[in-house]
């Protein structure tokens, strides 16, 4: 495995040479053990199937498509603010509910009103599985023969495969239900995938992996980053005060900021970028890349299939070169494997997982003025009225996992 600690070097390989470095290495735990290597987009080798999946996903999370989801985001944020006002001690669950609900609206045309919703529960279960992507975490990764051992001898392999089958059936059923519902949006991701299935261009398993990745990836990345931002605002009060001052100056007496204010809030935009750089949501920038052929970089030969990871760099003191990514960070990956979802300090302890978020901490959420609680509640009431058409129960049952 090759680690690059220089943003310019990794940009040269994974972006400029993306035609070579857009594949994946063999991943026993994340791919083979789940029978997912040739079905699941994150671990798919670079090729026609991956491009097909990428195109389908880009249709719902690409920069243009995301703008169509902004009304849902806006109104779910207003519901989130109400939850933070009324039950600030449960802010983590409130943020998770918001994240799940937005991607559920996009994926299945139905929102999530509480964390015991079946989609929310499955999203949390999905998040538990991301540790399979951590290199060196499991013996099976180094000794793939463990995949062939009987369950009594090595239960992890068969348990992982069976749990994945249950999750596949769940997301397939949920997608079919959403696509045939008379009330769910026919513009949902599931509806578009079912159309591809009817044309013979997708299998049941591929539909399950695509919708599952949308839910799991969107939820954990969004919620972890938001929770890290809350943590940062608690730790760095001076930054919080500057951000608030900018919002107060730009928004003024308007009820709440909206998307039209974004370009006039440079400090807040920089704050979000810095949070993504400071506490990126994934270890080592996500799943490693692999070249599809032997390559040479500055005299070093990189064999075909080598694991290539870009360690998320900290500040480059004394380096005057412009950062290769115009956003100032590479939290969403590099090159053609860039996730496309960004549009939707050692003294701190963070969880040891593929997706990183702070350990449990306390935070207070205090309105800045006497009129603000009333505005929050009023806007939340309007938001619920807007979102009511997305309120729908599901008949799909939550499976039990080993």
Report on this structure.
With 402 residues, the protein is mainly α. It has a single domain (24-288, 312-390), classed as Cytochrome P450 (Cytochrome p450, Orthogonal Bundle), CATH 1.10.630. It contains 13 helices and 4 strands. It has helices spanning 7-16, 48-61, 63-68, 70-86, 91-108, 118-128, 139-142, 155-180, 189-198, 204-235, 237-251, 266-278, 372-387, and strands at 2-4, 295-297, 300-302, 308-310. The strands form 2 sheets. The chain has a two-stranded parallel sheet with strand order 1-4. Strands 2-3 form a two-stranded antiparallel ribbon. The protein is globular and about 65 Å long.
In short:
This protein has 402 residues and is an all-alpha fold. The chain has one domain (24-288, 312-390): Cytochrome P450 (Cytochrome p450), CATH 1.10.630.
CATH fold title = Cytochrome p450
* CATH-level-4 superfamily name: Cytochrome P450
> H/E element string?
EHHHHHHHHHHHHEEEH
What is the level 1 CATH name? Mainly Alpha
List the helices and strands and how they pair.
Blueprint: E1 2-4, H1 7-16, H2 48-61, H3 63-68, H4 70-86, H5 91-108, H6 118-128, H7 139-142, H8 155-180, H9 189-198, H10 204-235, H11 237-251, H12 266-278, E2 295-297, E3 300-302, E4 308-310, H13 372-387
Parallel strand pairs: 1-4
Antiparallel strand pairs: 2-3
């Amino acid at each position: 495995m090759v680690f690059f600690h220089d943003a310019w070097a990794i940009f040269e390989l994974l972006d400029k040479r993306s035609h070579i470095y857009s594949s994946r290495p063999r991943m026993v735990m994340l791919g083979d053990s789940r029978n997912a290597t040739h079905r699941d987009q994150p671990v798919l080798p670079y090729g026609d199937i991956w491009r097909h999946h990428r195109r389908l996903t880009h249709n719902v999370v690409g920069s243009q498509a995301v703008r169509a989801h902004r009304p849902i985001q806006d109104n779910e944020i207003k519901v989130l603010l109400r939850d933070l006002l009324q039950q600030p001690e449960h802010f983590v669950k409130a943020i998770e509910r918001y994240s799940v609900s937005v991607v559920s609206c996009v994926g299945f045309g139905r929102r999530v009103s509480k964390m015991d919703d079946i989609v929310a529960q499955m999203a949390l279960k999905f998040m538990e599985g991301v540790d399979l992507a951590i290199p060196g975490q499991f013996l099976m990764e180094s000794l793939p023969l463990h995949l062939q051992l009987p369950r009594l001898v090595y239960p992890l392999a068969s348990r992982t495969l069976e749990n994945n089958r249950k999750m596949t059936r769940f997301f397939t059923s949920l997608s079919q239900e959403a696509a045939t519902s008379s009330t769910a949006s026919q513009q949902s991701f599931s509806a578009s995938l079912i159309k591809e299935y009817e044309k013979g261009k997708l299998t049941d398993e591929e539909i399950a992996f695509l919708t599952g990745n949308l839910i799991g990836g969107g939820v954990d990345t969004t919620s972890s980053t938001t929770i890290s931002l809350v943590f940062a605002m608690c730790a760095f009060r001076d930054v919080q005060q500057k951000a608030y001052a900018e919002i107060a100056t730009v928004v003024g007496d308007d009820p709440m900021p909206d998307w039209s204010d974004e370009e006039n809030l440079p400090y807040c935009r920089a704050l979000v970028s810095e949070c993504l750089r400071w506490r990126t949501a994934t270890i080592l920038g996500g799943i490693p890349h692999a070249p599809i052929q032997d390559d040479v970089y500055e005299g070093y030969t990189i064999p075909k299939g080598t694991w290539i990871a870009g360690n998320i760099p900290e500040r480059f003191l004394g380096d005057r070169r412009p950062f290769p990514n115009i956003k100032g960070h590479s939290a969403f990956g590099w090159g053609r494997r860039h996730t496309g979802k960004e549009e939707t300090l050692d003294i701190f302890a963070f969880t040891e997982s593929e997706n990183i978020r702070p350990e449990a901490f306390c935070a207070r959420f205090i309105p800045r003025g006497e009129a603000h609680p009333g505005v929050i509640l009023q806007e939340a009431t309007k938001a619920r009225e807007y979102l009511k058409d997305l309120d729908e129960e599901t008949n799909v049952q939550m499976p039990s996992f080993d």
